């Protein structure tokens, strides 16, 4: 099984391009993730992971997140093997994301990654589930006879 879930902050703005011929959107960016343990010097090390996103998710990433944005990425690890100019075999690892979730809940005035591509758009990251039969504060009135003690 090849499945990975990562949470980190973008180290640069996503780079969006379109595949020639098919027009499929592809976005590339990397995220910084602190390791859970400290080294001998007491400092935590950081890993920088390359991410590639395809399709509508790629366009959403390019339009609504940027450097410093907190994201959760779900996908699989991909290994590309190539030869450098000296003829040595090299490997490049990246995550081929099938889902990117925006975790920042910044409002529009402090939103550094809103590039203004869609005027009037303000991304909403709040849950929209509202249970039926509850008052606005989430409580339901019950009769004293319904309490079992």
Largest sheet: 5 strands, mixed, barrel
Strand content: 35-45%
Number of helices: 1
- Determine the mean pLDDT: 82
Strand line-up of the largest beta sheet: 1-3-4-6-5
Fraction of helical residues: under 10%
How many β-strand runs?
A: 6
Distance from N terminus to C terminus (CA atoms, Å) equals 51 Å
**Unreliable residue runs:** 107-121
Secondary structure class reads mainly beta
Estimated radius of gyration: 22 Å
SSE sequence, one letter per element: EEEEHEE
The dominant shape is extended
Note the topology.
Layout: E1 4-10, E2 15-18, E3 25-38, E4 44-54, H1 56-64, E5 70-83, E6 89-102
Task: Describe this entry's structure for a reader.
This protein has 149 residues and is mainly beta. The chain has one helix and six strands; from the N terminus they run ββββαββ. A hairpin with a 5-residue loop joins β5 and β6. The longest helix is centred in the middle third of the chain and has 9 residues.
Please supply descriptive tags for the structure shown above.
single chain, mainly beta
Short synopsis of the structure:
The chain has 149 residues and is mainly β. It contains 1 helix and 6 strands. Strand 5 (70-83) and strand 6 form a beta hairpin.
């Amino acid at each position: 099984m090849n499945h990975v879930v990562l949470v980190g902050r973008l180290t640069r703005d996503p780079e969006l391009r379109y595949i020639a011929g098919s027009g499929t959107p592809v976005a590339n960016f990397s995220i910084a993730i602190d390791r859970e343990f400290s080294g001998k010097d007491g400092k935590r090390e950081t890993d920088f992971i390359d991410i590639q996103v395809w399709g509508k998710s790629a366009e959403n990433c390019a339009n609504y997140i940027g450097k410093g944005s907190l994201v959760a990425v779900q996908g699989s690890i991909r290994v590309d093997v190539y030869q450098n100019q000296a003829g040595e075999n090299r490997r490049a690892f990246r995550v081929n994301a099938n889902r990117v979730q925006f975790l920042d809940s910044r409002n529009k005035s402090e939103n550094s990654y809103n590039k203004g591509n869609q005027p009037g758009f303000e991304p909403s990251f709040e849950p929209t589930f509202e249970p039926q039969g509850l008052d606005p504060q989430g409580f339901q009135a019950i009769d004293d006879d319904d309490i079992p003690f």
